[in-house]
């Protein structure tokens, strides 16, 4: 299974490990888990629509990906909840976001929503990173690595 | 010749351990006045800590989603009631280090309060918006007060604190209201409502004498003030237009209010969307100063004696803590305790302060007189720190 993922042509879009770097000893266990998990996602997803997968925004480099996951879980989480099930802000789960256009979600993240408590995150995120976050939210946001 | 030796052998095996067994069956007696709870938010666990020995003495798991959590204590300081994000209300025994009882009472809650006599625990819920009240000993439901407004919508409830006489006061984030509920007869709660108190109250506090309730406003510059001794006088606005019409900065974390804002006859409050602490006097409620600080304040907490006020900040300045000297009104110390400082709590009389650094996975203890670090404790994503001395403070 892991071999299959490692040689999969679309591996980069699902792997959270940086290209061309050797994962740390501690990270290997986690990465293996993530790869297997993502492989399941990928195989499930391929059946329903390979085109949608082809449009996945590329993941940022591994270190940055870690930071983004932490930022969403912890800092977005202070209003939306660590589990993203909502708090002062609404839930950010796939089922609550499904009907909303991804571009709208992206600009809500980058520019905030005036008249609400949602601040603009543009000072801390690139557009590509916001795209990546939206894509992850729509499929169920990854947990923080331990 | 051999007999005594054999006897000695059996004496050691059978009789000598007895005192040990008896001793372990009768645990050392201790009080709980120097204990507290630290929330490990990402793992749903509470650490029970001792502020005399600066140590972790126990761990209690299974408290659910604690991404936002707050704690009140029973009046005997033995039990901690933990309010979790997932609507969980957990009763933790600090002496045994066990989870005594846990109920899921709502979908999403923000905090709670315990009544003056210690018999009722009230939980403020976001979803379904309203207040739920429980018997403190059994956690059996006692009353349910939906925060209905307009045409039957439910508002998120924030800023709940206790008032004397089995009453609670709180704010309705979506409805711009303050409610006082009287639970002297829990079967028929009496609710007094105050409308148009200001846009989007985000949290509230009551002064240590229980007289004034302050609700911080997110939707406009200013604080709503209600004299709970003379509620018929209605809500007035203080510190109005403190932003002087300037564009406010984006707010990455909501500030928190509690009675710790009061130091002597002054109240120190976080300015929303500004790098400032606002100061007003608690007699005329006029602005007396504004103190520029490192970032947007989240917790502005007076040391119990009121001589210092410690401030932490929202992302991205959440690595800093600043100390205001209340005599001079100046910042006398800037600390960098660690990454993502989420909370701070003073020991009962304030000789030390405990600070949680979420992203460094540690809690730091500082001497408040010379700012030296006294201890460093490991904790997984620590957030709120709550000491049992809160049990005897009105509004905590």
Written account of the structure:
The complex is a heterodimer of chains A (146) and B (396). Chain A is mainly α and 146 residues long. Chain A is built from 8 helices and no strands. In chain A, 58% of the residues lie in helices and 0% in strands. In chain A, helix 7 crosses helix 8. Chain B is globular. Chain B has a domain of 146 residues: 7 Propeller (Methylamine Dehydrogenase, Chain H). Chain B is mainly beta. The chains are: A mainly alpha (146), B mainly beta (396). The interface between A and B is medium-sized, with 19 and 28 residues.
Instruction: Indicate the radius of gyration of chain B in whole angstroms.
Output: 23 Å
Most extensive interface: A-B, 19 and 28 residues
Strand content of chain A: under 5%
CATH class bucket of the largest domain in chain A = Mainly Alpha
Uncertain spans of chain B? none
Report the oligomer.
Answer: heterodimer
CATH architecture call of the largest domain in chain A: Orthogonal Bundle
Gross morphology of chain B:
globular
Structural class of chain B: mainly beta
Biggest sheet features of chain A: none
Estimate nothing, just give the exact number of structural domains of chain A: 2
The CATH homologous superfamily of the largest domain in chain A is called Cytochrome c-like domain
* Number of discrete helical segments of chain A: 8
Q: Superfamily at the CATH H level of the domain at 105-250 in chain B?
A: YVTN repeat-like/Quinoprotein amine dehydrogenase
Fraction in helix of chain B: under 10%
Please identify the structural class of chain A as seen in this structure: mainly alpha
Brief summary:
The complex is a heterodimer of chains A (146) and B (396). Chain A is mainly alpha-helical and 146 residues long. Chain A has helices spanning 2-7, 11-14, 25-48, 50-54, 62-80, 94-97, 102-111, 127-139.
């Amino acid at each position: 299974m892991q071999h299959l993922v490692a040689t999969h042509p679309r591996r980069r879009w699902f792997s959270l490990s940086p290209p061309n770097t050797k994962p740390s000893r501690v990270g290997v266990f986690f990465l293996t888990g993530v790869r297997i998990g993502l492989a399941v996602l990928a195989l499930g997803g391929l059946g329903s629509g390979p085109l949608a997968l082809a449009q996945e925004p590329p993941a940022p480099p591994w270190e940055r990906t870690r930071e983004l996951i932490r930022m969403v879980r912890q800092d977005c989480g202070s209003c939306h909840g660590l589990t993203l099930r909502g708090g002062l802000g609404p839930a950010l789960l796939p089922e609550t976001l499904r009907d909303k256009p991804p571009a709208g979600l992206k600009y809500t993240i980058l520019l905030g929503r005036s008249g609400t408590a949602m601040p603009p995150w543009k000072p801390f995120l690139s557009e590509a990173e916001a795209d990546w976050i939206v894509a992850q939210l729509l499929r169920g946001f990854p947990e923080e690595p331990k | 010749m051999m007999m005594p030796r054999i006897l000695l052998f059996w004496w050691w095996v059978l009789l000598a351990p007895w005192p040990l067994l008896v001793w372990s069956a009768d645990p050392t007696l201790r009080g709980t006045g120097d204990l507290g709870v630290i929330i490990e938010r990402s793992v749903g666990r509470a650490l029970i800590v001792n502020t005399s020995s600066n140590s972790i003495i126990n761990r209690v798991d299974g408290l659910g989603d604690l991404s936002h959590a707050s704690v009140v204590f029973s009046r005997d300081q033995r039990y901690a009631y933990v309010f979790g994000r997932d609507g969980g209300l957990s009763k933790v025994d600090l002496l045994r280090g066990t989870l005594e009882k846990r109920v899921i009472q709502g979908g999403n809650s923000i905090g709670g309060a315990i009544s003056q006599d210690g018999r009722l625990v009230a939980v403020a819920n976001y979803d379904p918006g309203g207040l739920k009240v429980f018997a403190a000993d059994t956690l059996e439901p006692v009353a349910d007060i939906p925060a209905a407004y307009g045409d039957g919508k439910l508002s998120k409830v924030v800023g709940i604190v206790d008032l004397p006489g089995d009453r609670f006061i709180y704010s309705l984030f979506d409805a711009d209201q303050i409610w006082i509920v009287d639970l002297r007869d829990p079967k028929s709660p009496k609710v007094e409502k105050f409308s148009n108190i200001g846009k989007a109250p985000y949290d509230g506090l009551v002064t240590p004498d229980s007289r004034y309730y302050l609700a911080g406003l997110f939707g406009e510059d200013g604080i709503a003030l209600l004299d709970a001794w003379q509620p018929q006088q209605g809500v007035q606005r203080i510190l109005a237009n403190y932003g002087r019409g300037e564009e406010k900065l984006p707010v990455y974390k909501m500030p928190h209010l509690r009675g710790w804002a009061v130091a002597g006859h002054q109240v120190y409050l976080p300015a929303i969307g500004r790098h400032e602490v606002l100061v007003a006097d608690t007699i005329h409620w006029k602005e007396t100063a504004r103190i520029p600080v490192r970032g947007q304040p989240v917790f502005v907490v007076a040391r119990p004696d009121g001589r210092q006020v410690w401030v932490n900040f929202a992302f991205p300045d959440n690595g800093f803590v600043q100390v205001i000297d209340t005599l001079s009104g100046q910042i006398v110390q800037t600390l960098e305790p660690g990454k993502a400082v989420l909370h701070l709590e003073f020991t009962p009389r304030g000789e030390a302060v405990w600070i949680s650094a979420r992203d460094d996975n540690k809690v730091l203890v500082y001497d408040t007189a010379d700012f030296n670090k006294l201890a460093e404790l490991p904790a997984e994503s620590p957030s709120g720190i709550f000491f049992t001395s809160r049990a005897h403070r009105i509004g905590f």
